[in-house]
Amino acid sequence: MADPIDFSTPDPSVRELLATHPDLSLDAHDGLLFEQVPLETIAHHVGTPCWVMSSGTLRKRAARLLGAMEAAGLSVSAHFAVKANDHLAVLRILSECELGADVVSGGELLRARKVGIPASKIVFSGVGKTDVELRLALEERIAQINVESVEELEIISALASGMDREINIVLRVNPDVDAKTHAKITTGVAGNKFGIPYDEALPLYRRARELPGVKAVGYAVHIGSQILTVAPYRAAYARIAELVRATRAEGLAVSVVDCGGGLGICYRDEGEGSPDAWAGAIRAELGDLDVRLAIEPGRWIAAPAGVLLASVVLRKAVTGGASFLVLNAAMNDLLRPSLYDAWHGIVPLSARDAMGKPEVVSVVGPVCESGDTFAQARLLPHLQRGAHVAILDTGAYGAVMSSTYNARPLAAEVLVDGHTWSVIRPRQTVEELWGNERFPDGSEEAA
To answer: How many domains does the chain fold into?
Structure first.
């Protein structure tokens, strides 16, 4: 497993970051624009912290990914990984782009159905599906359930039989392939909680064909997230291809291979995972199997489509060290830096601030945890109290992972589309934090 990246290159400048984010631009008068909307306008009217998603970026990246598959001669069923961003407005846009949904909970399944994604375009993944969630999947007649264990297979069979239903199941295989990504987002090596050990997959597939209520149709594999090279994909897909051939050699039909997702983006200067290269890997290893192919993109589509706006609360000087910039956004808003040591670009909204003299600072939030840190010893333009910044690439695993820790209300969410913008989730009020809480005597207020 790879450790967090130890960057040896200098931090990219504002200009260098914007060069890798084509839907962001810096105007001398209006400052940082997302599509054609000045982000200062949103910060002024909506306040900070505030999430901003770009409709245009979502559409462009979905089209580019599907186009890469088509150019490679692949007929692929694409299911957006709802765990990356489950906002209804985002899901509706991607549904209009012809993407289905990859869900990992009953709540995500219902969100997908709420925006009109057909049940026939929904796959259900995850290691701990409850009986209630499985019954929901059966009632909705979704496309397939990705089965993670022999125990889960038997539960699904029993539930489906009891409901007089039959559902397509795909066995998720753990191929023991290291994606060389962060240890907390790798999912395809031995010892991970995900998937069925490779050597046990064919015997279980054989068993599945005998069980009532389930129809075994193929195999799935997902080896992790933020994958930047195709070598791990090719290694995993080659193992799945061997498994498909071995299964067919026993006279068992295989009609589906779910290729998972995990394609990475450029957060800093590491380069971006290539949809064309990913499509090439799928074609090279699986293209001759005569199966229906599926993919589960999430981060690659949604992450660059979002930013988190924040304000500088104060500068805290440190004798003999880098000053702290304390933001009004925190780890309860954006957890990734605290959880994964993730690197996110930080760009001032003001053109004047963006062109300021660089200095080394640490950027932190106000939550009472030392881990509430967005950047350590980061080279940034000099920023004063009240300055506004955008934290980049937060459209995936950003707002969806937020909490109300330290009694901090959930931030507002805004969607931009060309020259227009609209609030798609109002800022939570402090009173709403305890709106559904009760005292033991049933009263809503203290005596």
So the answer is: 2
> What is the domain range of residue 272?
55-302
Model-level pTM? 0.94
Contact 256, 290 (CB under 8 A): no
pLDDT tens for 252-288 read: 999 999 999 999 999 999 999 999 999 999 999 999 9
Give the pLDDT band of residue 177 (cuts 50, 70, 90): low
Does 368 participate in catalysis according to the annotation? yes
272 is in an annotated binding site: no
CATH assignment of the domain containing 395: 2.40.37.10
Burial of 430 (0-12, 13-18, 19+ CB in 10 A): exposed
Please give the pLDDT value at position 220.
96
Q: Is 369 annotated in some ligand binding site?
A: yes
Q: Which residues contact 361 (CB under 8 A, 6 or more apart)?
A: 322, 323, 324, 325, 375, 377, 378, 380, 383
Sign of CA dihedral 58, 80, 300, 409: positive
Whether 101 and 233 share a structural domain? yes
Residues 325 and 241 grouped into a single domain? no
The answer to the question of residue 1 being in a domain is no
Tell me which of 50, 97, 259, 368 is the catalytic residue: 368
Domain match, 206 and 225 both: yes
Tell me, yes or no, whether 442 lies in a domain. Answer: no
Q: Find out whether 299 is annotated in a ligand binding site.
A: yes
Q: Are 390 and 309 in contact (CB under 8 A)?
A: yes
Rounded distance between C-alpha atoms, residue 21 and residue 3, angstroms: 26
Q: What is the CATH number of the domain that holds 202?
A: 3.20.20.10
The radius of gyration computed from the CA coordinates of the chain, to the nearest angstrom, equals 23
Q: Is 336 within any annotated ligand binding site? A: yes
Contact partners, residue 162, CB within 8 Å, separation at least 6: none
The answer to whether the CB of 392 falls within 8 A of the CB of 307 is yes
Point out the domain boundary residue: 302, 317, 342.
302
pLDDT at 312 over 80: yes
Residue that finishes a domain, picked among 302, 319, 350: 302
